[in-house]
């Protein structure tokens, strides 16, 4: 059993007693499941790289025409010295 009150103060929550009991019960289930997973021997398991059974699905790199700076900025709402200009989002 874990101390829900400790975690409740860390995350700045104020739970009712029935909510605290609900969280406590689920936390116990979660910890039990983690302990079950920790007990599984995985020494000889092959690491999983992908859930898909795909081999060699990467495409070949091809040289393609690149856009110029002018082409990229052509439809920009606001630009300054060859760059996109955006409104300030932070106040000083």
Please write out the topology.
Elements: H1 4-10, H2 17-38, H3 69-73, E1 79-80, E2 83-84
Antiparallel strand pairs: 1-2
Q: Can you walk me through this structure?
A:
This protein is mainly alpha-helical and 92 residues long. It has a domain at 4-38. Helix content is 37%, strand content 4%. The chain contains three helices and two strands, in the order αααββ. A two-stranded antiparallel sheet has the order 1-2.
Mean pLDDT: 87
Discrete helix count: 3
Total beta strands? 2
Strand content: under 5%
Shape: flat
Secondary-structure element order, as H and E?
Answer: HHHEE
Q: How many strands, what sense, and barrel or not for the largest sheet? A: 2 strands, antiparallel
By secondary-structure content and strand pairing, the structural class works out as: mainly alpha
Spatial strand order of the main sheet: 1-2
């Amino acid at each position: 059993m874990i101390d829900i009150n400790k975690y409740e103060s860390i995350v700045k929550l104020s739970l009712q007693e029935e909510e605290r009991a609900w969280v406590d019960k689920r936390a116990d289930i979660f910890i039990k499941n983690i302990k079950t997973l920790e007990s599984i021997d995985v020494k000889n398991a092959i690491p999983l790289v992908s859930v898909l059974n795909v081999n060699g699905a990467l495409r070949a790199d091809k040289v393609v025409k690149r856009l110029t700076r002018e082409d990229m900025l052509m439809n920009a709402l606001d630009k300054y010295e060859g760059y996109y200009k955006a409104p300030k989002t932070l106040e000083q």
